[in-house]
Amino acid sequence: METIDLRKQMKDLWSPPVGKVVLVTVPAMPYLVIEGVGNPSTSRAFQEAIQALYSAAYTMKFGAKSAGIAEWKVTPLEALWWNASGRDLTDADFAVTTPGEMAWKALVMQPLVVTADMLKQAKAEIVRKKKDVPALAQVHLETWAEGVCAQTMYVGPYEGERSTIDMMYTWIAANGYGVRGRHHELYLSDPNRTAPEKMKTILRLPVQTVQS
Predict the structure, then answer these.
(1) Span of the secretion signal (predicted)?
(2) CB-based contact 172:179 (threshold 8 Å)
(3) Which among 75, 62, 99, 85 has a CA at the least distance from the CA of 14?
(4) What's the rounded Cα separation, in Å, for the pair 33 and 52?
(5) 83 close to 189: Cβ distance less than 8 angstroms
(6) 134 near 48, Cβ under 8 Å?
(7) Which CATH number, 3.50.50.60, 3.40.630.30, 3.20.80.10, 3.30.1360.70, labels domain 3-209?
(8) d(CA 176, CA 169)
(9) 160-181: pLDDT as tens digits
């Protein structure tokens, strides 16, 4: 049975250097996805989204293993952030953005063997076991190709990201690129188990060449 470890197979996507911007190309991959609105610090929606995404992800993982399809490691949570006006948001914006202005898409990357039918079966299994997963119905499978992106590793508390984001924008402009998509974060640390100063977050911005 095939064993899949996306973090090892796509090492460049998951291990950028700290404080240095690099370019990566993110291929088309399936993701478990939930979209929502509201500040995760003041509303339950984001936490319920995380619960639903991982309930589905682990149920599919164990189901695929039992069926002899494949075995894989579940990847870390990712999220895109923006507001009602379309402006990208980072965690540094949370304190000054009202919950109604904040929009997000939470994602968990899946291996290519995952199908919509597997997700349907996983949802049915979760319901059968009568688990309390309020946002489960909102989870859907989406294939997304992010393409060429600039990214870096940030280490520290979420609210301290601003200087690193500014550094990324400076690098992007200086190297002839422009940002073409939403602010993207990949959370490598569990905030419940990791000291704020040791938290690791990949910061990613899709880019395109600027015509001179």
Answers:
(1) none
(2) yes
(3) 75
(4) 10
(5) no
(6) yes
(7) 3.20.80.10
(8) 11
(9) 998 999 999 999 999 999 998 8
